[in-house]
Amino acid sequence: MSTTILVAVTDIFFYTKVRDALRPQGYTLERIRSQDEVAGKTASASPAALILNMNDLAIDAFTALETLQADPALRSLPILAFANHEETDTWRRAKELGVTKIVSRNEFSARTRELVEDIIANSGQQSPVRSAPNAEG
C-alpha cells in the first residue's frame, strides 16, 4: 500500500526537495498547484499528510488552512508547514489554524523525510483522512 502525501508547494526548488526525499521511500505525491485544488485534492486523495509552504506565491496558506478546518473530515489531517524563521506571526497563526508542525525553510530542506514521518507517526492516523473516526483538531 502506498502512502499519499499532498504537497502544496509550487516553488520548484522545494517541490524537488520533497520529491527527492519521499519518492524513494515509497511515498506517492499528489501536488496541489493552486488554491482551487486544496479542498478537492485533500478530500479525494485520502492523504496521510499535507506539506504546506506558508510563503507560497500561488497558494494562500492561511486560506488553505481555513478551508481544511471548516471540514470536520479534514481537520485531523497532519500538516507539516514551513516558513521563514523570522515570521513569528505566520508561525503563530499557522499553529492556531491547525498546523501539526511548522519549521524553518532550512530545517525543512535538511530533514523533509524525518519531519513527514514524525507527523504521520505522532498523529495516530493509520487510515485515510476520510475514514478518521475522530475529527478533533
TrEMBL record:
InterPro entries: CheY-like_superfamily. Gene3D superfamilies: 3.40.50.2300. This is Histidine kinase. It comes from Nitrospira defluvii.
